[in-house]
Model the fold of this input.
Amino acid sequence: MLAILKEKKGPGVTLKEVPVSETPKGEVKVKVIYASICGTDVGIYDWTPWVAEKLTPPIIIGHEVVGEIIEINGQAPRLKKGDIVSSETHIFDNTCYQCRINNRHICENVQFFGYGRNGGFSEYATIPIHTTWKNDSRIPLEAMSVQEPLGNSVNVITKAGVAGKKVLIMGLGPTGLCAGMVAKVYGASEVVGLNRREYRRKLAKQIGFDRVLETLPEKEYGTFDVVCEMSGNIDTIQIALNAARIAGKIIAFGTPKKNVEFDWGVLINKEITIESVFGRRIWETWYQTSDLLISGKIDLRKIITHRFKLAEFEKAMGVMKSGECGKIMLIP
Amino acid sequence: MLAILKEKKGPGVTLKEVPVSETPKGEVKVKVIYASICGTDVGIYDWTPWVAEKLTPPIIIGHEVVGEIIEINGQAPRLKKGDIVSSETHIFDNTCYQCRINNRHICENVQFFGYGRNGGFSEYATIPIHTTWKNDSRIPLEAMSVQEPLGNSVNVITKAGVAGKKVLIMGLGPTGLCAGMVAKVYGASEVVGLNRREYRRKLAKQIGFDRVLETLPEKEYGTFDVVCEMSGNIDTIQIALNAARIAGKIIAFGTPKKNVEFDWGVLINKEITIESVFGRRIWETWYQTSDLLISGKIDLRKIITHRFKLAEFEKAMGVMKSGECGKIMLIP
Amino acid sequence: MLAILKEKKGPGVTLKEVPVSETPKGEVKVKVIYASICGTDVGIYDWTPWVAEKLTPPIIIGHEVVGEIIEINGQAPRLKKGDIVSSETHIFDNTCYQCRINNRHICENVQFFGYGRNGGFSEYATIPIHTTWKNDSRIPLEAMSVQEPLGNSVNVITKAGVAGKKVLIMGLGPTGLCAGMVAKVYGASEVVGLNRREYRRKLAKQIGFDRVLETLPEKEYGTFDVVCEMSGNIDTIQIALNAARIAGKIIAFGTPKKNVEFDWGVLINKEITIESVFGRRIWETWYQTSDLLISGKIDLRKIITHRFKLAEFEKAMGVMKSGECGKIMLIP
Amino acid sequence: MLAILKEKKGPGVTLKEVPVSETPKGEVKVKVIYASICGTDVGIYDWTPWVAEKLTPPIIIGHEVVGEIIEINGQAPRLKKGDIVSSETHIFDNTCYQCRINNRHICENVQFFGYGRNGGFSEYATIPIHTTWKNDSRIPLEAMSVQEPLGNSVNVITKAGVAGKKVLIMGLGPTGLCAGMVAKVYGASEVVGLNRREYRRKLAKQIGFDRVLETLPEKEYGTFDVVCEMSGNIDTIQIALNAARIAGKIIAFGTPKKNVEFDWGVLINKEITIESVFGRRIWETWYQTSDLLISGKIDLRKIITHRFKLAEFEKAMGVMKSGECGKIMLIP
Done:
């Protein structure tokens, strides 16, 4: 089968025919229907220090996928052949302290689908039974693949608690765009997007953001009840603190590549709360996400801007890096 | 009367005989019984940028006080002459948005007793009726003065929610020491103090900390459910993040003089929450604080290490700056 | 001026010309523009035991009003003549424990506008300065009067936390209808209304409820994340417990006239939480309510079904008691 | 082996020699060291309607146990032969909605150790691997058996949030007694016990309750921040509502045998919250409970008043029913 591999340490990937692997005990094998590219995949491509620490080649990359189960190896009372399933990226061990106190998504020994082990940018993939999510057939097939990043946004907005609140979304990549959509559905009084790139601001406006800004004007300082930091830029933390209202809340989601530097005193003087989101609550967030998609309140196709064949991966990565895109789909 | 004044911009203070001022409309006049020195008073003495921004000389400094009401100018249904009262430092305006939504302690137009206007390092002082707290007579007189910083610690520990939790207190000045005592009363499973100064660690041990540390050993990384940052050092934020457990909580209280720099990614990878405390909830925290003192569960005299006459202020400030002290009392 | 009075103990009211009263110290006088009838007013009319306990005649009744300030007697930094204002019904004393710990709406010595003292079913009314809410001019005038009951619903739905949740509203009087509208705006996944009266169910459907039911079928037992009890019927508590999902939440708002009886074990077996709402948070709820009306997300005119002159009060009360109505407005 | 069986429907139990059963797949076999009698066991003995609904004879009863693992049948990475373990009574299925959203203790298909299937009043017992708790060896052996009811109290007090609060414990059976001990450790300002039986009040006083009452005097109405209903009496709900302060919290734990009847209006007028507890959070509560026992802050031996051989079960049940006891231990 065709697969996108990180074959050795360093930048770049390899497109290659590889044998379809056996289905390990406790896993299912799926025929991949759609996959989608995540910002993390760019880091994997570029071989950032964060990736270098977590990824041991050779590995099939890709963690946002939807596929059809063609084989089950082990006890799986909720699954059967033919089910259309997605994968939760955080493979939890179910035995550590965090798993046992119901924080499985921040498992102390978490392994990552698609960068800690083989993922899904390939014609076939295997997924652990306990991180396999069975999809509701009313959800559009493409959306099923993008459900994992949407889940991040659902968790961000749920933790934020936006009903009746004025919300700033910093960074308008796919998770930022999704966060804005979810904030609208969950009753935010106003949702404002912030991004330096015009393409992204336009897209945000189209999908329902109330306003978009290139930079935050000083007159808006201290006016946001909630600020969602989804960009991972190092200079946005100070802006987030400035934007937040007294007693406001910041949600940290984007991971910067370097240390951040800012005035900690602002945090205290305004008595701001920072909550952070590492991923989706397992499985609370998935149920919420699924409901939003079934109801049609969130239509993920609005942010899917490009579709490529798996063999066109390099081209897709090029568009991804240009920033002139929403979510990019891969079709095996 | 004798008073400690910041007479002009720049370092230092002036001890001076000044006339006893009139009691403004809406205020009470008290004969000061005790006052105590706060870390902020050191900043006022040294004329730090933060102070330079907030303080317009000439001003009588000092905000931790207890006194007896000798005059009331205005409607004060809860007060009468002879009452022994303390002052809430945050003079709220009761008309801004934050006051109206029950966050009076972070009033948008807050004025500060003892650095935004005349305070209490003097024989007589006037306090707004609406920020005057009537003390319960069962509380030791000295403790009444130190109730305001204890209140900070009570709010820190209440926000932290320490029952059954392992707690690290970073910085063992009076608020750090108080935070440790409150954490013990409120059911922390273990309270560990961190300070570079041996004097402070010894004092912490005496008053009930389970353990004290000079530096945090790597083996304790990721083991604290709650980390209270009470030092205001710029390099402790990274240590706080390292110390905190996955899904742990950091309480930000100490205000550093410069920007902090740290790895924001740790925050996200561990899904840590940061809550911050600007002062005492008005009046929730005061009721809680008062209860702790009435019951005898907290004995503030254990952290009072020095007592000076008001006229010995320079000497007191010297001890304060040496760091070889707990709380320092001033007696007018 | 014309006023609706409870002149003596017992059922009924009196329409009567009375002199316009002086404006007491600390109050404003308003020319009433609109008033609206509340379920409590029916109890006042009928002289229920609850009312008999709280109301000492003679009193001008009516607590939902909007008017224009024509006189101010006292300090009122936020108000001026010509302001269009509404009244918060709960006149708090600002000195009791609950007021001091920021629960002013449940003041220990609360007095009620329109049944603990003169209210607003009259051409002119006086309102305490500290319970006067200045309206934003973008809100439709009629809605300003209905803002107080809408506030109850906003507080109910805010406490419930409905984002992504399946919600049952029991009782489709004006507060139930409002609760449904707010639940939709704040992101409930489905809002179902329950009422025996067809008129009310039809109205609910028109204003956006997803579904309405005459009785709760057994197959829906255990399926609601949130149940809002807005009817005050004694037999609905057991139905609420049956309707709620395991780990669900019930919001108690409607006050039954007699004791309720139910199986407390269901509460425990399902680990249900019951939160209750006595009124609007002062002023958090008012800000939220105002935002919903300014934005146009809630249009209260949709539930206003009848308009009467003040002199037609008896006719209005007749319609009110028939149950074939939404909100009924009175025009002085 | 000797076992206590409910052999057939109706009151009473049978002491009988039965063969030691095989260890089913996915379970461990333990040699029971101690067992303890729960209030539920009285209901089982008496064959109450609640029990009649859940229990299909023949079954070995008893769910509070500690034993040594002598056989493991299945994957159990955290367990090995010789481990001293206790049993979580709620056998969750790990596949229902509640299990998947991290509420395993209120599993939709929960099965009960010792009344939904064979339990532990016998010389040997088998426990599902996934509900087996491995004990810390520093905990006294007897306490390990009583850890399960203590866990209920830990969850009650944790949900209540008692730091600095005045707490009323209604019902001073073993869980009520434990709740009082935990409330003291977790920082309650005052813990008051309520029980009609002098024996129980005396025991409560000995183990650290601040005060005990036979009935609640009217002057204490409205003074408790937290009321824990641990008695299961039908007439205590109204008393709980009377006892609670405005904005107070009631924790529902005790399950009455009949419908309760009370004034729902009090709930609303005081804006009281009722939270309920069905059992221990799995495994959060167990970690907390274990910490309390390891630290010695809770010494369960203080409430163990009687010890009987398993063969003396009828005698033990007699004492249990007399109410003149704390916790009763059984020794196989």
Remarks:
- Chain C touches chain D at residues 50, 98, 103, 106, 108, 234, 237, 246-247, 252-256, 259-265, 267-278 (CB under 8 Å).
- The CA atoms of residues 92 and 110 of chain C lie 5 Å apart.
